[in-house]
Amino acid sequence: MAAVLIDSTIYIDWERSRQGLTSSLLFFTESHEVVVCGMVCCEVGGGIRCAALRGCLKAIWNTLVYVPSDHRIWEASEDLLWNLERKGRRIPLPDAVIASCALRVGATVYTRDQHFDLIPGLRVAHRLEDL
Question: What CATH number corresponds to the domain at position 21?
Answer without folding.
Answer: 3.40.50.1010
